[in-house]
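Final paragraph of the annual report: two paired records, presented back to back.
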Amino acid sequence: MLTGLSLSTVALLLVAGVVLDLLLGETRRWHPLVGFGNLASFIERRLNRDNLRLPRGSLAWALAVLPLSILFVVLTDVAGLWLHAVLLYLCIGLRSLRDHTIPIYAALRSGDLAQARALTARIVSRDTANASESDLAKASAESLLENGNDAVFGTLFWFILLGGPGAVLFRLANTLDAMWGYRSTRFNLFGRPAARIDDVMNYVPARLTALSYVLLAGAGRASAWHCWRTQAPAWSSPNAGPVMASGAGALGVSLGGAAVYDGEVEQRPPLGAGPAACAGDIQRAWRLVLRTTLLWLGVVCLLAVLTMIGAPHA
């Protein structure tokens, strides 16, 4: 491990952080990523101007991310191992994914379309005012699959490599991509460094996530693999494509396609294969993300045990 921690220690801290997240969920009063978002907005308002947007975007990314990441490297050295688990808890969003999507499933099952629309609008940027049950189920399932990588598996990957500071680094970079990584007049140049850095940091985790979705697809394993290899290249995002295509294939459901943004219908490439999404697919997508989390924890713990068994004894 690049942290200098043994694999057994990393495995223990990994499990502790995930358990804390499942038990406690997001902090109620003040979430660190919300505070970071306010800091990022402050920096962006002061640097995103004139014709030097690209270098200013690089500077803004460095000012927002690097001091905090270095600070947490120092703090973990001073405070001890427990802070690594706390940082993972603060960065990971497994419980949050469930808390934001399962109520949509429950609203759809009870026939409360208005409530389902309002809840879905909180997690996606597309218009939901006139969305059907299938539209809402599709949006929620897509959000679960993609954010499974962004909020969970990418965080776990960088934690394994760099400990708590690695999880912080990844989530801060991912947050800046979500805030600045748009091809709009305001952000096309300024946000490009944030988008490219996130692409690089997410490249390996996204493919490990896609592979995990394939392995957990059961009888749909071949379909999940086929969807990944044939559908992912059509998506503009190099990392969302593999994750969402393999996940949709694993669920045996059709996602992608038409979605409404700012009143305009956007035709997106198809994802998966099978019937159109329904309410039950939200719950199935959540279970796939949870099972993938358990798979990752199990693999790391197994490797830790094998390493301990194979280590020479004094």
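The closing record of the year follows.
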Amino acid sequence: MKSSAVSKSILVLSALVSAAAAAPGASSAVARAAAADLQSSLTLDPSVINKGFADNGQNPPTAGQTASSTSTNNYINFCALTLPRTPLTNGLQITSGSCNQAPIGLIPAAANMPSAKFVFPPNGGSVKADAAFTAQLAVRNIQTGVFTNAQKTYFAGPQTLNAQGLIIGHSHIVIEKLTALDQTTPTDPQKFAFFKGVDDPASAGVLSAAVSAGVPAGAYRICSINSAANHQPVIVPVAQHGMLDDCSYFTAT
């Protein structure tokens, strides 16, 4: 198909979507069909081309600031530049590294940024060694209990929001062994004493995870990893913000 014909088809499709969304009593079937076509089309719709991506941020230059990469087509072929050395992220957890073409997706308003705080174990608290306990994490501004198949759809979809403008997703709880509570050496992210994706929605604003085997005697750090449905860490609209996750330090005796 010639480029002019492609452009005309895209404009007609965009008009169908706009009309279906705006017209009172418009057919929901038409709207669904138009949306489905947009999600299966191999051509970038002109309405989503972000002209801001063509600006490297150095107008004028700022000392010490790095110029951004730029694109006039929303980076739609970015990962083509990495092939075959770096494979595409394909829904699997590729431990050797990959390149992801899924968009970031919907970003919440600043007033709807999520946050979390551990209820148990409390910071500086203690649990009985090798005894079961329930980790509890208080959360706000996130619709929890929503997760996709991490073995097949990892990072394979954009972040989405619910009708209240909150990120739709879930959280994880990870416990790492420390040499001491005052340890300053960075930990190894590939090593942990406990890890659990919290599948259930929060109850009264609190997520719970059973640490059924407990942990051996020692010092520990427990942290949350708040995520969108496809397991990517939550994305928020501003660079300057408080922590979206929480960590507490505790001992097992």
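The mean pLDDT is 91. This concludes the annual technical report; the extension proposal builds directly on these records.
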